[in-house]
Amino acid sequence: MNINATLFLQAIVFAILVWFTTRFIWPPLTKALDERARKIADGLAAADKAKSELAVTNKRVEEQLAQTREESTKRIADAEKRAQAIVDDAKKRAEDEGAKIIAAAKAEAEQQVIRAREALREQVATLAVKGAEQILQKEVNVGVHADLLARLQTEL
Questions:
Q1: φ, ψ for residue 140 (rounded to 5)?
Q2: For 43, which of 27, 79, 112, 133 is 20 to 30 Å away at the CA?
Q3: How far apart are CA 8 and CA 66, in angstroms?
């Protein structure tokens, strides 16, 4: 065989191989590669979208947490103010009640002092009458001398 014929035959076989490959093998291969590239691009786009949605959601969550912290701080402050007001009110009521008890005790003590003075006056008047009886050596009639005894009692 001649080298030129071999080269020519190989060129024809190569041309048929190229035509067959471009006609039947290359289009499905390109289609599969394009489909794979599209799926990867869609997946990356979905990942970017999910990432941005996650960032937005995280931002909303942080805002809500900050708002909740503010509300809880306000509620704690209000509760402390109410507790202090309740304590102050209880102290005021206790002081008022204490003042009433002290006033009542003072009034009772004053009444007891007055009763004790009256009892002491009566005892002194009785002793004075007995002393006068002994000095005069005669009996003093209480009914007859009631004015005198009443004056003596008020003077004491």
A1: -100, 130
A2: 27
A3: 82
Chain centroid to CA 23: how far?
A: 79
Classify each residue of 119-146 as buried b or exposed e, where b means 16 or more C-beta atoms within 10 Å of its C-beta.
eeeeeebeeebeeeeeeeeeeeeeeeee
Angle among Cα 72, 76, 77 to the nearest 5 degrees reads 115
Amino acid at 42: D
Tokens of 13: 């076989």
**Which residues touch 132 (CB under 8 Å, ≥6 apart)?**
140
Only one residue has tokens 């020519």, namely 8
Look up the pTM and report it.
Answer: 0.45
Dihedral sign (CA 35, 39, 42, 44): negative
Q: Which residues 6+ apart lie within 8 Å of 129 measured at CB?
A: 140, 142, 149
What digits encode the pLDDT tens for the residues 103-139? Answer: 999 999 999 999 998 888 888 777 777 777 666 655 6
